[in-house]
């Protein structure tokens, strides 16, 4: 076994140890519960755009993108556009590595890799900032409900011809909405890639944290994930990601297609 393989074996042992540490997992949930009133996830940006995400989850996405090498990422929920910039920049890095490996000069706008973003209300100041961003050429946006048949039709049309597709769901977090999104967009995920369902952590938090929201424990993305998984054995929850991250808004939300 070479040194790289030894290191990877150590990492796997670390993750297994984390997965068996119930006390640490409980502590992680307590930390997330206590940080929630401070809106901790609102305090970060990516390449100049606010990204309402936990840094751990952004790192996990990076690892998935490097492994899967998608040519299309579909995201529901745009907000300020930070998540779009995360995905667009990761796809741009794939373009760069392709150019280096092939010895070709990189033409940033020649690649077909892109991000599709969907939101029921793309506010004008956010749209303007996204469209003026240097990575705008890698982003296509659709305004409308992500579960509206017309929106789904437009996205599926835009997704034609792409071979490796990754999906990220992060809009309305009710059970009914997320399950509808899963049924609409998860079939586009390619084998070996992922459908990431964010904010499954709602199910593990106190109900009073969501007094002003339509979602709550029992009516959350995680309940939709469990229902979807029962009906779609081609998807499996990647528990290794959960164990590795510990601090995440998406426990049981990293769905890998077999």
UniProtKB/TrEMBL annotation:
Record keywords: Methyltransferase, Transferase
Name the record gives this protein: Cephalosporin hydroxylase
Keyword Transcription: no
Organism per entry: Alishewanella longhuensis
Gene3D superfamilies recorded: Vaccinia Virus protein VP39
Lineage, highest ranks first: Bacteria, Pseudomonadati, Pseudomonadota, Gammaproteobacteria, Alteromonadales
One Pfam family matching this protein: RMNT_CmcI
